[in-house]
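The protein record reproduced below.
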Amino acid sequence: MVCRSSLPLGKIMDYIQEDVDAMQAELQGWRRENKEHAQALLQEQRATDRAVEPLKAELAELEQLIKDHQDKICAVKSNILKNEEKIQKMVTGINFSSRT
């Protein structure tokens, strides 16, 4: 009985080694493919960075232009407020002088 049971067990042991070898080969294939994809990803990232760099520079320039225009707008608003104050003082002065 033991002999009859040990024969299939021996064959299974033979197949286990073949399965382990096949799994090792498959693992190596997956590792190789992973490395290839990692390198391709790195190359694409570098290409993307090179393509985006001029756009980043343009964006920085546009942001600076926006800030400059906002500063000019603030300066004009300040002048408008000062002129309104002057006009108000002049109107008040005219009203005061016409009453006397």
Remarks:
- The mean pLDDT is 91.
